[in-house]
Amino acid sequence: MDLQQTKEVKKLIENEISKTILKIEEYKELTQPISPENAIGRISRMDAINNKSVAEAALREAQTKLQSLQYMLTKTGNKDFGQCAKCNGQIPIGRMMIMPQSRFCVNCAQ
């Protein structure tokens, strides 16, 4: 990976970190406890509880993505940036642009 590609990926990682932080804040709002004093029906309450569970799963996934992105951002200055953590092969730039948080090439990620 050349210097220009590394700069592009680093900028993409920084943008993804910003977006992910915003998503985490949204998910935190959606995972607030459901007040029992709200006058909603039983079905509506069950639907709200289900939606809360989905939001909690999305929150966990976004937090994991954020940690991976932050880790990859620390690696952008290293000479081994862009290498697969498993096989040490070069991760294609296309994959880095689609999934900047990935530490593995396509073959090793499967």
Describe what this molecule looks like in 3D.
The protein has 110 residues and is mainly alpha-helical. It has one domain. The protein is 65% helix and 0% strand. It contains four helices and no strands. It is elongated.
**Low-pLDDT sequence parts:** none
For the largest beta-sheet, the strand count, sense and barrel status come to:
none
Determine the number of helices (DSSP H or I, runs of at least 4 residues): 4
Which structural class should the secondary elements be placed in?
mainly alpha
Q: Give the strand tally.
A: 0
In percent, how helical is the residue content?
55-70%
* Overall shape: elongated
The total number of structural domains is 1
Question: How much β-strand is present in the residues?
Answer: under 5%
C-alpha Rg (nearest Å): 19 Å
Distance between the termini: 22 Å
Helices and strands, in order, run as: HHHH
Instruction: Report the average pLDDT across residues.
Output: 90
Produce the secondary structure layout.
Layout: H1 3-30, H2 42-75, H3 93-98, H4 106-109
Helix pairs in contact: 1-2
